[in-house]
């Protein structure tokens, strides 16, 4: 059966009260063909997250109505392996038993996690610039460094793809220290890899249909605007870690602490860009109108956040997306228009200037790997 995670927004509840509510779920679960696997609860935030096997969402809703009189605030379908990777378990952790009720297992285990996304240089471009053997050696070396530091700092590898690493931490201090060590070692030893790191924190269920989807979106966006070997912390995480990592001790080019206003601007710019990048007619005038700012304001904001002008940033975003499209076996013409360029000749010119090779050669390279 599918696995689901739900969210309960609660106030002034103790670990014992939540354990008693979980016992109610167990009492009625068979009636609705559900199986309650475990839960997470953080008394400080007042949020609880329950993990169920169930035939569908409605079965979980009906179970909660029967057991507690209310539906969960939110339910999403999740992948078991992703739950393990992000949160470390899918069954109850070590518990203590209530003296008055030996059947009551009580524990408090937060689902709050700090996510690191390490954006890496495209493997196909690396093979082209360095040669296949040297590129693969560097990639292996990079992966060894990252995995070793994750182990040293109690991080969990969630996902490794061609474009980056995703890892989960319980401690913000561990997460930032891990990122700093990765930054230090890779910048000294494997400069060709151009790592860029974003770090944010949040809960597993919010608005997104994906586990930790809202947190992951911000984390990836921070990495996307980071400069070479730069770490960007969200304002939320910076606030949590400010005593251990005083902002004045680090140059922004090394460790950038975003403030809430910068994050709002980034969200506006990225939401608009992600909605319209494939439209060849979408230009700077449209960008300004959608965001509701002038050209001069857009220019200043883009320079401050990305180091690029709006035109350069829009082109860069489209070119990076074109790499993904070429890997999907799209031809040059299809890739041109799907990535928002107005003509194959202009796309080819921009691609060659940015990456140092023709898109057709990248397409062939991707097809063989």
UniProtKB/TrEMBL annotation:
Domain HTH araC/xylS-type stretches: 267-365
Listed Pfam families: HTH_18, SCO4226-like
Which superkingdom heads the taxonomic lineage of this protein's source?
Answer: Bacteria
Instruction: Kindly give the Gene3D superfamilies that the UniProt entry links to this protein.
Output: Homeodomain-like, Nucleotide cyclase, ORF SCO4226, nickel-binding ferredoxin-like monomer
**Molecular function, one GO term:** adenylate cyclase activity
All copies of the Guanylate cyclase domain together span: 176-223
Which PANTHER family does the UniProt entry name for this protein? ARAC-FAMILY TRANSCRIPTIONAL REGULATOR, HTH-TYPE TRANSCRIPTIONAL REGULATOR EXSA
Task: Indicate what this protein is called per its UniProt record.
Answer: DUF4242 domain-containing protein
Q: Organism, per UniProt?
A: Cerina litoralis
């Amino acid at each position: 059966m599918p696995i689901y995670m739900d969210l309960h927004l609660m106030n002034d509840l103790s670990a014992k009260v939540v354990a008693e509510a979980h016992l109610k779920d167990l009492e009625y679960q068979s009636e609705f063909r559900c199986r309650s696997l475990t839960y997470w609860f953080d008394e400080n935030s007042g949020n609880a997250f329950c993990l169920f096997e169930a035939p569908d969402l409605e079965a979980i809703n009906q179970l909660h109505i029967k057991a507690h009189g209310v539906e969960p605030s939110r339910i999403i379908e999740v992948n078991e392996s992703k739950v393990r990777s992000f949160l470390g378990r899918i069954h109850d952790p070590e518990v203590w038993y209530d003296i008055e009720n030996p059947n009551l297992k009580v524990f408090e285990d937060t689902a709050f996690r700090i996510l690191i996304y390490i954006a890496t240089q495209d493997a196909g471009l690396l093979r082209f610039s360095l040669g296949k053997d040297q590129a693969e050696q560097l990639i292996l070396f990079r992966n060894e460094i990252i995995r070793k530091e994750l182990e040293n700092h109690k991080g969990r590898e969630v996902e490794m793809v061609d474009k980056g690493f995703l890892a989960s931490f319980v401690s913000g201090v561990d997460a930032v220290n891990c990122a700093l060590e990765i930054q230090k070692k890779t910048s000294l030893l494997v400069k060709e890899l151009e790592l860029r790191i974003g770090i944010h924190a949040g809960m597993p269920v919010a608005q997104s249909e994906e586990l930790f989807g809202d947190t992951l979106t911000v984390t990836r966006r921070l990495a996307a605007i980071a400069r070479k070997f730069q770490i960007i912390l969200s304002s939320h995480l910076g606030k949590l870690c400010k005593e251990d990592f005083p902002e004045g001790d680090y140059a922004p080019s090394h460790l950038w602490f975003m403030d809430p206003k910068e994050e709002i601007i980034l969200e506006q710019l990225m939401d608009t860009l992600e909605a319209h990048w494939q439209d060849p007619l979408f230009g700077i005038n449209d960008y300004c109108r959608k965001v509701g700012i002038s050209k001069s304001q857009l220019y200043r904001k883009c320079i401050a956040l990305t180091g690029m002008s709006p035109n350069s940033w829009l082109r860069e975003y489209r070119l990076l997306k074109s790499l993904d499209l070429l890997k999907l076996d799209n031809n040059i013409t299809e890739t041109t228009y799907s990535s928002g360029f107005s003509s194959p000749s202009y796309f080819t010119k921009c691609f060659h200037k940015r990456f140092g090779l023709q898109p057709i050669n990248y397409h062939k390279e991707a097809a063989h790997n």
